[in-house]
Write a structure and sequence with these properties.
Strand content: 15-25%
Number of strands: 4
Radius of gyration: 14 Å
Order of helices and strands: HEHEEHHHE
Structural class: alpha/beta
Largest sheet: 4 strands, mixed
Number of helices: 5
Distance between the termini: 13 Å
Number of domains: 1
CATH class: Alpha Beta
């Protein structure tokens, strides 16, 4: 059984679409039951590469990774983002996720995190009229 209902998935996808209206950054959510690595960041790196998030034109992809049965998550940004934002950005976004995930509210945690990431990304990677959606907004599953 998948942890999110169809409606919750649609709400998360809508949050991605809304965030990407203000930025050329690309946001992706990947959810799996268990983390196949001891470290969530290590697994997120594998997923990041597998989903080709490192191939965006401006290297501005962000992955929200969740392994719900193992209670692990990570947020991973590509090189272009990490050169511009500080660790405080990632920490504050992780805190939003953690706070809601502890309550079992994965939808709220992800939508708030995505919104926050979009707000930050628009400062460094504003939306361009010729912007293309380089990465599908659909939630991927492990």
């Amino acid at each position: 059984m998948f942890i999110l209902s169809e409606l919750q998935q649609k709400n998360i996808i809508e949050a991605i679409k809304m965030a990407e209206k203000n930025t050329s950054g690309e946001i992706k959510v990947h959810i799996e039951e268990n983390c196949s690595s001891a470290d969530a960041m290590e697994r997120a790196s594998e997923v990041f590469e597998y989903l080709s998030l490192h191939k965006t034109a401006q290297r501005n992809g962000v992955l929200f990774y969740l392994a719900y049965e193992d209670h692990k998550f990570a947020i991973l940004g590509d090189k272009g983002i990490n050169e511009k934002v500080g660790q405080t950005f990632w920490d504050s976004t992780k805190d939003l996720l953690r706070e809601n995930f502890k309550k079992g509210d994965f939808e709220k945690g992800l939508t708030l995190g995505i919104t926050e990431a979009g707000n930050q990304l628009k400062h460094y990677f504003p939306y361009n009229t010729d912007d293309k959606n380089e990465i599908s907004d659909e939630i991927s599953r492990g």
